[in-house]
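Q: I'm writing up a methods section and want to include an example of the input and output format. Could you take the sequence below and give the corresponding predicted structure tokens, formatted cleanly so I can copy it straight into the document?
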Amino acid sequence: MTEGKPTFPHLQADSFKFAVLCAEFNTSITEVLLAGALEALKRWGAVDIEVVHVPGSWELPLAAKTIAEQKKPDAIIALGAVIRGDTPHFDYVAGQAASGLMAVQLETGIPVAFGVLTTNTIEQAADRAGGKDGNKGYDAAITAIEMAERIRRLRQ
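A: Here is the clean output for your methods example:
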């Protein structure tokens, strides 16, 4: 799953608290993203990790905001998979999930790593969830660690 990934030797996640939000819609994809995110967090020593499942990507922003306000993690990782269909539903869900998650990080000051796949096909999603394009859940967790470190340094 991590073959070919940079090693990021400077990363240390042991002093940070993480929340990982995982959409249940398209579970065959999102559970692989979750496994990748947890692998990355643990690889760099994270021990304080809370995993929260939500029905779909549409619900990620509210869950992220609630966790940010109530639990105060150092970073949040939002995982989901929105796959284009025959209706404009994709555009609404993908766009609003992205906007909502951006608003959460700007309103709370807590980084939210965007691990929501927005693909045209299930095959493209599978390629990005452990397939030939790596695991975007893993990548989102790396981003979360990096942002937690950088925000901590900026606040000092």
